[in-house]
Each structure stands twice: as structure tokens, then as C-alpha cells.
Amino acid sequence: MSKVLLLKSSILADYSHSNKMADYFVQQWQEKNPDDEFTIRDLVNQPIPAIDGEILAAFAPTDTKTEQQQAHLNLSNQLIDEIKQSDVLVITAPMYNFAVPSQLKHYFDFIARSGHTFKYTEQGPVGLLNNKRAYVLTSRGGIYKDTPTDIMVPYITLFLNFIGIKDIEFVFAEGTSLGAESAEKAQSHARNHIDSLIA
User: Fold this and answer.
1) Distance CA 26, CA 48 (A)
2) pLDDT digits (tens, 9 = 90+) for 64-122
3) Quick one: which of 46, 80, 85, 104 could link to 9 by a disulfide (CB 3.0–4.6 Å)?
4) How far is CA 57 from the centre of its chain?
């Protein structure tokens, strides 16, 4: 049995193309792997605060913390435990103004902690979240894949590699804002890719 952690980061709820991709992914995965356990974390409905000086200080290895800093540290520990216990990570990552949603960036900031998800060595940083697979479901209003304007794929790949996750598969739904026909074509392409991955 595998444990699957799904991170939703779209602000568009039922209108979200990345959420539709995620729902289809979960349905197909559960049909093929009925014994697997899913944890769904909605980063919009369960928002993580933007990192600031107080939060950064909360992550420092000191015994003196305010009540609010302790709460931030507890949340970070919870998120890290959650991803550590998972075998498979599924991330929805719609493109907003060429970047990932701020909700997803805040999540990354809360789990990137030295000694927990990576460590520094004489040879440089080493990720500690090994032997995990990641699927990134990304929707875009236009067409950006494999162009210089797609800075999301390199960024997400870099971050996941940094914390030790090397096995990454991207699923794209592009052109979702170019009319109903284009949106349906994008979803159909994404569903076909998901089918091939899960099969």
C-alpha cells in the first residue's frame, strides 16, 4: 500500500482546470490502487502564511519562541511529517502570471528546512526526501510548454530535486483560456497522459 499526498493550490475551486485534473488523477489512481491511502491538503482553504522574519526565526534552533512562532513551527513540522510519510506527491500547479500560485510557494517555504528536508554538506546541499515520486498537474491559459516563458517547470523541478525528489512527471493542460474547444482539448490531452502514467 502506498500513501499519496495531494496538494491543491488553485484559487478557482470548481472552475479550476488543475483541480479537474487532480480529481481525474485521484479517480483513476484509486481504481488501479484501491488500497492506497490519499491525504488531500487544499492550500487555498487551509492557507499557509507568507514567510517573514518572525516565521524564519521560528524555524531557528532556539528554545525562545513566542506563542505565534511556536504555532508556525508546529505547522511546519506537521507539513514535513506529512510529506515524509508519503510515497507519492501530487501537486496541482496552475500558472498565475508565469509563476506558481503564492499558496504553493508558501508551502514550499514551510517545508524547506535544513536538517529536515535537506542538509548542507561539504559537497553542497543534499535532499533528504528520497525514494518518492512526484506528479505535477499544471494548467495554463496559454501555450508555454518548452518555451523560455515557462519558468514554472524549471523552478518546481529545482525545488523538488533540492529536497531529494528526483522522479518527477509533469502533466500539462495548456490553452485553457483560448475557448471552450481548446479547453476541452487540453483536458483530454491531460486525461490521456494521466491514463498512461497510472496504467
Assistant:
1) 23
2) 889 999 999 999 999 999 999 999 999 999 999 999 999 999 999 999 999 999 999 99
3) 104
4) 24
